[in-house]
Amino acid sequence: MRRSGCVPTVETYNVLVLGLVRKHQIDKAVGIIDKMSLAGVRPNERTYTTIMEGFAADGDIGKAFEYFTKIKDEGLKLDVFTYEALLKACCKSGRMQSALAVTREMSAQKMPRNTFVYNILIDGWARRGDVWEAADLMQQMKQDGVFPDIHTYTSCINACCKAGDMLKAMEIVEEMKIAGVKPNLKTYTTLIKGWARASLPEKALQCFEEMKLAGLKPDKAAYHCLMTSLLSRATVAEEYISSGILSICKEMVNNDLIVDMGTAVHWSKCLRQIERKGGELTEALQRTFPPSWNSHEIYQMDSHQMNDTSARINRDLAHNNDEETGSLDF
Fold it and tell me: Is the pTM of this model over 0.85?
């Protein structure tokens, strides 16, 4: 642009900031503001709001509030997008009381809550497994004439699943169907994870089949949740468990889905509880493992290393599952 004699504007810099934030390069995005100052271009509310969204994704509420204050101090316009970014930071960090304070300020500014605002709040309570707060917000949403969408219902289902209230989760599924809202891939994956958490892999398997009958193609997250659920009960060795594992393995292989090494170690450890010397299930499962699985290092891994790896994988899976189904960035 510069070589062509075009002078970058604030909109140009904002596009750069947005691109960096979407790539989770928040430090570089913040650095663009310094370049804008050197170029004599003043950041606007969109610049700061995008930066806030980057910090919100990381749950950094302190930094999000810092840039929210910058918008105020520089006399820029506070809009619903700015408040949404701040709410995301509050909810992602679990600071729900701070989130409620932000909504009170929105009310004071006579800024109505839209679907996105309600969804962010409901998702925040869902992360904590607070079914009643999530349900109350949905009820308030309806009273305000704001219609729940697929994200709203999925977040409420997520709250039920985290609380272990699968009966309530299924009630919400029926409610959304009556409202004409069809469950999507994330809805079904959330339910599968909920049934797995409730130690009912047969229900998880049934939900998986319903998802396919609805015309939805399972993704890696759905397969992962279901397989982990089945393997967690592999010691039971019931027929539906074994046939389910074989069926899912076949589907994954047909869809060229290969798990990472950490997941392979975790799944292998679970399966060894019933097939200590290998067998049909082990052979089928290993077809979903990365090619390096048969390396000397894997076979030489002792039980202590397996336990350490398994613990790390469990932590990673908890984090990944939270990102996949606990967030409203559908």
Answer: no
